Amino acid sequence: MEMSLTKRLAKSRLFTSITELEDQLAARTDTVHPVEISPKRFDIIQGKLESTEGSPPVRLLPCILQCLSGIKESFLTLAENPADPKTKASADFIQELELKAYALGASSIGYTQLPERWVFQDKAVLYKNAIVLSMEMDQEGINSAPSVACMKTVMETYRDLGRINNQLAAFLRERGYGAHAGHPLNGLVLYPPLAQMAGLGWLGLNGLLITPEHGPRVRLAAVFTSIENLPFNEGSDHSWVRDYCENCRICHIKCPPGAFYEDPVEHAGGQVTYIKNELCFPYFNAYHGCSVCVKVCPFNLRPYEKIKAGFTATP
Questions:
Q1: pLDDT of res. 47
Q2: At what angle do helices 61-76 and 148-174 cross, to 10 degrees?
Q3: For residue range 81-126, what is the model confidence (pLDDT) as tens digits?
Q4: Domain boundaries, the chain
């Protein structure tokens, strides 16, 4: 029987070297480590290996390989960090950093400190100071979900946001700061709650970050840095989104495998589980990464401010 594309990728030297680099970083003592209540990462490729359903189309192989190369680069370039990195940045430098991020293609940027509980089990990152980024996914591609075209859109966004993160990390190092580019694909931390803390949006009942710019139609990543005086978010509040979601629930209604919990399960430390993995992941693997919950979300279809105005004006 011919080996699937996923299994060939997982046996490749590129993939195994990424696993080794993750383990090497986790073994260091100068990193931010998980705690007992930290969640376990859902490894997309490992999930594919354990599934008997589906495999990415061969025509997506170049994009997948580019993603994996970007992940590997994010680890290898840690050796380029300055021996004694700077820890303070001026307001002018932060503005320059943001202009560069937007010029490279980021959709939004925010800042927060990483709680250890959001670091995945058996993983680690180099710094707790986080520059969190979002990047829009093409709406036409997402609206075709579930489809190969949608999967292509998602993978291309992973690739492009990964490139942005690696370039921003290089920019920080050139200026004397330490940096660790957290790739959006198979990240080392739980990005959605981190992005909420950074003020980029609010978690909806689909478990995804709802952003003012593009609703849930984004991918997330973070650059972890030695800069200790980042303008950490203190005032962005999008919490009304949760009340809207409670009244909407269209993602629950339209979910093909019916994988959502009626009420999200809250765990110690603030982690929340929105989906039943045993129902979601088989369908996810069989149907091109699904994304139906992104497609049907009103925040994907209508402007954020119009939805907010209509909802908050309701008595």
A1: 59
A2: 20
A3: 999 999 999 999 999 999 999 999 999 999 999 999 999 999 999 9
A4: 5-184+219-225
Q: Tell me the sheet residues that pair with 86.
A: 177
Which helix (H) or strand (E) segment is 131 a member of?
strand 129-136
CA–CA–CA angle 82, 84, 86 (5° rounding):
90
H helices of the chain, in order, are 5-11, 13-27, 44-50, 61-76, 91-104, 139-142, 148-174, 191-197, 240-248, 250-254, 277-286, 292-295, 298-301, 304-312
Using an 8 Å Cβ cutoff, are 43 and 186 in contact? yes
Using CA atoms of 131, 184, 173, 16 in order, give the dihedral in degrees to the nearest 10: 150
DSSP of 208-219:
SEEBTTTBT-EE
Q: How far apart are CA 107 and CA 132, in angstroms?
A: 11
User: What pLDDT digit, counting tens, does each position of 209-256 carry?
Assistant: 999 999 999 999 999 999 999 999 987 789 999 999 999 999 999 999
CA distance 290 to 142: 9
C-alpha closest to that of 231 among 115, 78, 97: 97
Alpha-carbon distance 76 to 225, whole Å? 16
Q: What is the DSSP letter of 135?
A: E
- The pTM of this model reads 0.94
Give the model confidence (pLDDT) of 259-298 as tens digits: 999 999 998 777 889 999 899 998 998 899 999 999 999 9
Q: What is the mean pLDDT of the chain?
A: 93
Mean pLDDT of 187-196: 97
CA 33 to chain centre: 18
* pLDDT of 52 above 60: no
How many other CB atoms are found less than 10 A from the CB of residue 289? 21
